[in-house]
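Table S2 (text version). Query chain:
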Amino acid sequence: MSANLPVEDPLIRMQRELKRALNKKGNIQWAMVIDVAKCVGCHACTIGCVAENKLPPGVVYRPVIEEEVGTYPNVRRRFLPRPCMQCENPPCVRVCPVTATYKNKQGVTVVNYNRCIGCRACLVACPYGARTSDFGEWYTEPTPELPGKIVGRRAAAEGYEVTPATEYGKKWPRRGRGSPVGNARKCHFCLHRLAVGMLPMCVTTCIGRATYFGDRTDETSLVAELLGSPRGRRLKEEEGTRPSVVYLD
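Corresponding structure-token output:
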């Protein structure tokens, strides 16, 4: 049985390739491959992403879409993680009236929170529903604050709600001036983690090793190998968006 196991955990290989990409001189283009045959629908990637980016209620960067397929009694569940597709030809960039949304040099579509006016044109333009708005809601808002209790709304909020988000390498306050409240928000491949040599949170939390990440310009990388798989497909290719996220059926 041990002969059938991989020699090296894919996470170890991807971590090594990430460091190699960051140390090279030249173009980096990040890409993601998701093997839906390995996804068990545990939602660990969704929860890890929320915790990593301190996302408020209603803001989700990596939902897992569930679908029941087949005909009774031969039915099964199918799971599809859906991050931002990081399109090469992103409709959201074209419709932004203030150029708050743009593609960076590494092929990731990002949002400038200080420039975004919250018009939500990008939410409408995205054919994948990969963007959400931050309405400033609190998880702990319905939690009562009772005298004499050890844990109340204020204590609970201090543990998570008011912790600054570190997206894009900055410390964004959760509320008030300079916060993302009112803005459009989306997956950004955890750029703040990549900058310090760490893989995106959704990659590291995937219990089935269904998510792969790396520099697609590195022909020897795992993600480059998988991008060439005959099992690969992109969502809504007819839209002409050319996603950087590829699924393996």
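Notes on Table S2: Helices lie at 10-23, 44-53, 91-95, 121-125, 153-161, 191-194, 201-205, 222-227. The chain has a mean pLDDT of 92.
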